[in-house]
Amino acid sequence: MTELEIKNAKAKEKNYFLSDINGLRLLIRTSGKKIFEFRYTYQKQRKITTIGHYPHTTLLQARKKALEYQELLANNKDPQAIKKEEAIALIADIEGQVHKIYEKWFDLQEQRKLHIRTIQRIKSFIENIFLPHFSKYDKERNIISSLNINDISHKDVIDIVLKYQKKSGSDLALRMFRYVRAIWNYAFMSGFLKNNPISNIAITQLLPPVIKNHYAKITDETILGELLRCIDDYKHSLMIQSALQFVALIPLRSGNLCKLKWKYIDWENKTLSIPRAEMKDNNKNIPDFKIPLSNQAINI
């Protein structure tokens, strides 16, 4: 069989073959498609496996593959079984890319209905800081491919965390590491990771201690009075003035204050109810946050 014979082979009313050496043959279908096949006997069974389609696979490439299959047979290995194992390994290698594992893990986090700030924090840490070290991007900054998670060492992870710590501090570096460790735990439990090299890393021993800044409380009645009078005298924005007056009367975080809705207020009973899902402690087993409103708060 030659390249010229293959090129000139035309479709007929029935499928037919052109034979070559080492069990290789070319199948010409009635549709005109040309497919290289390898015929062999393994454990007294006749078998056929596809090598590739012509012209995507050349005659030289097909002969090389047929020779490889003959060597497998000489070592008592079934080429068809080996081919299947290689295909599975290829899929596993693709699915084992760290960005694909992150996507699967992230989908689970979204299903848990985490707070929007937590979701945004995860995306910022992993997509903007961690993954770029192991990924290739297209012009639109979409990830084309990334390193297999099994090829990322514990030192690679530690180096990224320590580098980020120098830029943003120990607190944020520790948070990022916890998300990375959660992804690695997921990969290990899902079978993508052969062993988990970062599960036992005590990262806090490598990071400088977190310095917490506690903001001073106003305990002096005179200073508190001055603050309240300044709020009452504030004239630049009625909305800001009302918000400051309101938050001085009820214990609310700024985030909850900005997201208040009219439907949360029970005017008749003078109470404010905020759904538990919008609070920092969003445990659904805890009742919604409810607080009585004074006449001053109602008037605001």
Helices and strands in order, then pairings?
Layout: H1 3-8, E1 16-19, E2 24-28, E3 34-42, E4 45-54, H2 59-74, H3 79-95, H4 98-111, H5 116-130, E5 135-137, E6 143-146, H6 154-168, H7 170-189, H8 221-233, H9 238-247, H10 254-258, E7 265-266, E8 271-274, E9 289-292, H11 295-299
Antiparallel strand pairs: 1-2, 2-3, 3-4, 5-6, 7-8, 8-9
Helix pairs in contact: 5-7, 6-7
Whole-number average pLDDT? 88
Biggest sheet character: 4 strands, antiparallel
Specify the CATH class of the largest domain: Mainly Alpha
Shape: elongated
Percent of residues in helices = 40-55%
Sheet/helix structural class: alpha+beta
Q: For the record, what is the CATH homologous superfamily label of the largest domain?
A: Tyrosine recombinase, N-terminal domain
Strand order of the largest sheet: 1-2-3-4
Q: What is the correct CATH architecture of the largest domain? A: Orthogonal Bundle
Strand content: 15-25%
Individual helix count: 11
Can you count the beta strands?
A: 9
The CATH topology of the largest domain is given as DNA polymerase, domain 1
**Structural domain count:** 3
Q: Which regions are unreliable across 5 or more consecutive residues at pLDDT < 50?
A: none
